[in-house]
Design a protein that fits this description.
Elements lengths: L3 E4 L5 E4 L5 H13 L1 E7 L5 H12 L3 E6 L2 E7 L11 E2 L4 H11 L5 E5 L2 H4 L4 H9 L3 E4 H4 L1 E7 L7 E3 L5 H12 L4 E5 L7 H9 L3 E4 L2 E5 L8 E3 L4 H13 L4 E8 L6 H8 L3 E10 L2 E9 L20 H9 L4 E4 L12 H11 L3 E5 L2 E5 L10 E3 L4 H13 L4 E4 L4 H4 L3 H7 L3 E4 L4
Parallel strand pairs: 2-15, 3-14, 6-7, 10-11, 21-22
Antiparallel strand pairs: 1-22, 1-23, 3-5, 4-5, 7-9, 8-9, 11-13, 12-13, 15-17, 16-17, 18-20, 19-20
Helix pairs in contact: 1-2, 1-8, 3-7, 5-7, 9-11, 9-13, 11-12, 11-13
Length: 439
């Protein structure tokens, strides 16, 4: 079991580039494999989740060559070129892979089985099985088809106009990807706008994608053509040094090339509402995605009421947002965020329990929390369980940098899932991060 420990020290400073965007990295591998011709990808996140996606497509006959760190060549096989895998596909902790792959595999001419680790096998899959079944997919899973492993017998599908009950990029993407190999137009309407990386990248590969408000449509049987892509750095990964710099007096850091897709910048919106000093520099476009360099300086944060409409664009960053709110002045109220309970862990319960152990004052609600900030900082001096959730682990490590006493975080093995080199990058900015032992 990997244990990491952080403690208060000098201000953070310097300029760094965080890990490549995980969501875009998954899609680059998938769409490059389904395209015709060669796709060149650079800046790819080489975390465990993305490597699981690479392994899955290699198991289905796609040649994917590593050229250099983060640089890969994908020899696409087209929408109908995948081969039946000769074994179960193990996706580890990669929920994005399992949900999006289900959409891809539902229309193939072969049978496949998707599984993962204990955490992934406990995450809800019924939300993608339902719309895919409406399209004619044949999918079996545990607990009345709600949990993995998933057995998918590919078959011919029909297009649908799906009204999604949740704003989820993974649900939307699963349906749209199934629609690629289906005659006619497939559409998804969401209650709020979720991440749109799938729509952007599919269009860049040559798919016919249209948006009308909260409804997105894709035409079936496009010819996808190989591309040259550079993956922006991950705003979810940037969240951790960003919040650390805001909380530690005297800090002044720059994060370069951060993805600024408006469906991903909810945390920045919330932090700026709290009074954060975040400056956007050299705003530009990279491969259809907006990016910028971000200069972040220590700020006196104030509690806020989180607008529900911002939640979908900040859903992965709420663990570290909890940390910022716990050290802000005044009360922060989070509601309508029940989705946090079905991530890699129950993130509401995990953050409330862990922050209380560090001396924070907060109240757990079914769909969020009420957090009473302590701008003087938390006491710390505790051992916290990450529940094997990489974002929970990194959030409490950030908290330890601003606590009066050290914080020890257990079960940090999955940090490399989304942010390889996290500890080293934080040390490079001046943070006190060390390998430790359980107390």
């Amino acid at each position: 079991m990997r244990v990491l420990r952080t403690f208060k020290g000098k201000p953070l400073s310097g300029s760094v580039s965080v890990a490549g965007d995980k969501s875009i990295s998954h899609r680059a591998i998938m769409f490059g494999s389904l395209a015709e011709g060669i796709t060149q990808v650079s800046g790819l996140l080489e975390g465990e989740d993305v490597l699981s996606t690479i392994g899955a497509f290699r198991a289905m006959g796609v040649e994917i060559e590593k050229q250099d760190a983060g640089a890969y060549t994908i020899h696409g096989v087209g929408l109908d070129g995948l081969e039946e895998p000769d074994n179960v596909i193990d996706l580890g902790n990669a929920g994005t892979s399992m949900r999006l792959l289900s959409g891809v595999l539902a229309s193939q001419s072969f049978m496949s089985i998707l599984t993962g680790d204990d955490s992934l096998r406990g995450r809800p899959m019924g939300r993608i099985v339902k719309p895919l079944t409406l399209m004619g997919a044949r999918i079996l899973g545990r607990d009345d088809n709600r949990l993995a492993p998933l057995v998918i017998q590919g078959t011919e599908l029909v297009p649908i106009d799906y009204q999604s009950p949740v704003a989820s990029a993974q649900v939307k993407s699963a349906v749209l990807l199934a629609g690629l190999n289906t005659a006619g137009e497939t559409s998804v309407t969401e209650p709020a706008l979720s991440r749109d990386h799938t729509e952007r990248m599919l269009a860049s590969f040559g798919a016919e994608v249209e948006r009308d408000g909260l409804r997105v449509m894709v035409d079936g049987w496009p010819t996808l053509t190989g591309q040259t892509l550079r993956v922006p750095t991950d705003p979810s990964a940037a969240a951790f040094p960003m919040v650390a710099a805001l909380l530690i007096p005297g800090s002044d850091i720059t994060l370069t090339g951060v993805g600024m897709n408006p469906t991903r910048t909810g945390l920045i919106t919330l932090l700026e509402m709290m009074g954060a000093n975040i400056e956007r520099l050299d705003e530009r476009d990279v491969g259809g995605e907006p990016v910028a360099d971000l200069r972040i300086r220590h700020s006196e944060l104030k509690g806020i009421e989180v607008p529900p409409e911002v939640i979908p664009s900040a859903i992965d960053e709420f663990p570290v947002f909890f940390v910022a709110a716990a050290m802000a002045e005044g009360e922060t109220l989070l509601r309508e965020a029940k989705e946090l309970r079905v991530k890699e862990s129950d993130r509401i319960a995990a953050m409330v329990t862990g922050l209380k152990a560090l001396g924070a004052t907060l109240e757990e609600r079914e769909d969020g929390a009420i957090i009473q900030g302590q701008p003087q900082g938390l006491k710390g001096g505790a051992e916290v369980d990450s529940h094997t959730d990489h974002r929970i682990a990194m959030s409490f490590l950030v908290a330890g940098l601003a606590c009066r006493e050290p914080v020890t975080v257990l079960r940090c093995d999955n940090v490399d899932t989304s942010f390889p080199g996290f500890a080293g990058l934080m040390r490079g900015l001046g943070a006190n991060v060390e390998e430790g032992r359980a107390l």
